[in-house]
């Protein structure tokens, strides 16, 4: 959805609104936050920090749908600790902050945390960006918007740096979105959310960095997100929050680890595949040039993965992608899910 659409009340209960006063002046602005526990919120470091000083957080609102609307679902909370990575000179690197609340939030249907992604959890399925946007062009009444996209071949390290004119940075720390996302509804701290059907859970995969809010919805500029998996150690250290299902010792045939655009399955592997003599990492299904299936080798063990619905494994960049972008694929062999 290029221009985004209004979210339903309670649809994304981990969404947090931050009202911030920039240090040293009277400028006020909004940022998005993401609730990851009853006491911790993730946001972009640049929302709370500028020129070696903390900005002033005026309010932290949980459970909101419209910021100016009175609602019994809203909780106004305060913070006690803000932690950002050291050496934050380059905002494309380590652009993340952990906000610790003064007291735990009260979980309701409108206030719930989202899961952190496991370390091997990447993205190339459908993702939803959620952020605060102006309602009917009002400058005071903000409501929650959502925009959906699929992270496909766009966003490789070199291409993204060329498109944005920003860099250098690494794919290991930055996610680059498809250029069809509307900037107006994506502000700093906006989470990139992914719903995993196998686990029946939502995961936060990225946090939006600096966004040019003046850019209209026809812009071809991509948006950069801090890759949450690159910051798991930092988050754990300052929140004690961990991803679910990350115990490597239990990964046998029932692994629930995910990889780019995928979730592991418990279906049997074709007998033709073996990790013998292969390096650790991802490997394609050699029996087909257009397959939803691929494999991971780890210390001699092999695991089967399946791309999300409507996607195929792309060998050259080792991700799941639209079949039209995969050499040897006939898109008619796949169900293509169009964005609404």
Automatic annotation (TrEMBL):
The family database entries (CDD domains) matched by this protein are listed as:
Tryp_SPc
- Note the InterPro entries from the entry: Chitin-bd_dom, Chitin-bd_dom_sf, CLIP_Serine_Protease, Peptidase_S1_PA, Peptidase_S1_PA_chymotrypsin, Trypsin_dom
Q: Which GO terms describe its molecular function?
A: chitin binding; serine-type endopeptidase activity
What GO terms fall under cellular component here?
Answer: extracellular region
Q: Which Gene3D superfamilies match?
A: Chitin binding domain (2.170.140.10), Trypsin-like serine proteases (2.40.10.10)
Q: Keywords of this protein's UniProt record, alphabetized?
A: Disulfide bond
Please give the Pfam families that the UniProt record associates with this protein.
CBM_14 (PF01607), Trypsin (PF00089)
Q: Which residues form the Peptidase S1 domain?
A: 1-240
A biological process (GO) of this protein is: proteolysis
Q: Which residues form the Chitin-binding type-2 domain?
A: 272-331
Keyword check for Disulfide bond, yes or no: yes
Q: Which SMART domains match?
A: ChtBD2, Tryp_SPc
Q: What is this protein called?
A: Clip-domain serine protease
What is the source species?
Daphnia magna
């Amino acid at each position: 959805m290029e221009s985004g659409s209004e979210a339903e009340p309670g649809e994304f209960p981990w969404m947090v609104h931050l009202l911030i006063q920039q240090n040293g002046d009277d400028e006020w602005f909004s940022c998005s936050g993401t609730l990851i526990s009853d006491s911790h919120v993730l946001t972009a470091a640049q929302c709370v920090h500028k020129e070696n000083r903390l900005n002033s957080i005026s309010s932290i609102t949980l459970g909101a749908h419209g910021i100016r609307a009175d609602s019994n679902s809203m909780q106004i909370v305060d913070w006690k600790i803000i932690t950002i990575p050291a050496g934050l000179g380059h905002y494309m690197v380590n652009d993340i902050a952990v906000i610790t609340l003064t007291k735990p939030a009260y979980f309701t249907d409108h206030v719930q945390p989202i899961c952190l992604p496991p370390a091997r959890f990447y993205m190339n399925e459908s993702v939803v960006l959620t952020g605060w946007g102006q309602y009917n062009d009002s400058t005071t009444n903000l409501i929650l918007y959502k925009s959906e996209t699929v992270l496909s071949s766009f966003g490789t390290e070199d291409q993204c740096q060329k498109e944005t004119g920003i860099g250098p940075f690494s794919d290991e720390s930055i996610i680059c979105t498809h250029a069809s996302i509307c900037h107006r509804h994506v502000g700093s701290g906006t989470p990139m959310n992914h719903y995993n059907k196998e686990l029946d859970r939502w995961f936060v995969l990225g946090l939006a960095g600096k966004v040019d809010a003046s850019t209209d919805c026809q812009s071809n500029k991509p948006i950069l997100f801090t890759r949450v998996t690159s910051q798991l150690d930092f988050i754990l250290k300052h929140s004690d929050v961990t991803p679910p299902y990350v115990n490597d010792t239990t990964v046998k045939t029932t692994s629930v680890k995910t990889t780019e655009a995928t979730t592991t399955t418990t279906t049997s592997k074709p007998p033709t595949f073996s990790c013998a003599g292969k390096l650790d990492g991802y490997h394609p299904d050699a029996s087909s040039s257009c397959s939803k299936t691929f494999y991971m080798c780890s210390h001699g063990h092999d695991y089967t993965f399946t791309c999300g619905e409507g996607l195929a494994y792309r060998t050259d960049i080792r991700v799941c992608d639209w079949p039209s972008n995969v050499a040897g694929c006939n898109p008619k062999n796949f169900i293509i899910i169009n964005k609404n």
